[in-house]
Amino acid sequence: MDPILVQRRDGWSLVTLNRPERLNAFNAEMHGALARALDAIEADDGCRAVLLTGAGRGFSAGQDLEAVGRDTKLGDTLELFYNPLIRRIRALRKPVVCAVNGVAAGAGANIALSCDIVLAARSAKFIQAFAKIALVPDSGGTYFLPRLVGEARARALALTGEAVTAEQAADWGMIWKMVEDEALRPEAEQLVLHLATQPTAALALIKQAIDASATNNLDQQLDLERDLQKQAGAMPDFREGVQAFLEKRPARFTGRGA
C-alpha cells in the first residue's frame, strides 16, 4: 500500500497520508513518498493548490515510535525528514490547505499547523504529545504555537500535552475554522478549487510576506511589501484583475508570474 496517495484534480492536487492502520504515523518510507509528491507538485505548473489530509480515522499521530525504537539520534531524524518537510510546505509557491480529520498529534499536529489554511472536523483534536514521552515539541511546534495562540497557551499545551478540540483551536486562532465532520472534505475541496483559480504567483508573494513579518521590524516589512508589490504589479494577472474589475466580470487568472 502506498504511504502517500496523490490525486491530480482540475488545477489542484489531493495529497493523502495513507497509513491508516498506524493512524498515519510517519516512517522513513512515508517521508520519502511525501517529499517526492511535493517535488512533483512544485514542478507542475498546472497544479495551483494543494489539499493535504489523512486516510482513515485521523490525520496523523506524528512519528511512528515503533519505527524509531530506542534510537536516541532523534535530531538526525528531524534534520533528515521533518525539518525539510516543514520548510518545503512553507516555501511551496502554491497555497496548501490542510483538512484535519480526527487526531493530529505530535509532529502530525505541527505539520498541519505549517500549512497555509487549516480546516478541522469537529471531532479533530490537536495534541502536543511530546512531553508525554520526555521530548521537546518539534516540526515547528515551538515556532507556530506561540505565534498562533500566544505564549501562555503555547507553554501550557507543550508542558501538559493537553488535547485541544477543533472548536477550541478555531476560537484560539490556531486554525482557520472548524466544520462538521461530514462537511470537512466538501468544504476543503471547494476552498482548494477556488484557490486553484486565483493568481497563484501573487499568492506565493503573500505567503512570503507573511512569513517574513515574524522576524522583520516595521521598516523592513514596509520595504518588503514595496518590493513584492513591484513584482506583483508586473505580472499579467494584475492587469487581468484590474481589467476584470473595470468590466465587472470574474477575473480569469493564469497563476503565472510572467
Parts with pLDDT < 50 across at least 5 consecutive residues:
none
Order of helices and strands: EEHEHHEEHEEHHEHEHHHH
How much of the sequence is in beta strands? 5-15%
The CATH topology of the largest domain, please?
2-enoyl-CoA Hydratase, Chain A, domain 1
Helix content: 40-55%
Count of DSSP helices?
Answer: 11
Count of strand segments: 9
Report the radius of gyration as a whole number of Å: 19 Å
Give the neighbour order of strands across the main sheet.
1-2-3-4-6-9
CATH class label of the largest domain: Alpha Beta
Secondary structure category = alpha/beta
CATH superfamily of the largest domain: 2-enoyl-CoA Hydratase, Chain A, domain 1
Major sheet characteristics: 6 strands, mixed
Named CATH architecture of the largest domain: Alpha-Beta Complex
Q: Kindly, what is the distance between the CA atoms of the first and last residues, rounded to a whole number of angstroms?
A: 40 Å
| Mean pLDDT over the full residue set | 96
Question: Globular, elongated, flat, extended or rod-shaped: what is the shape?
Answer: globular
Total of domains: 2
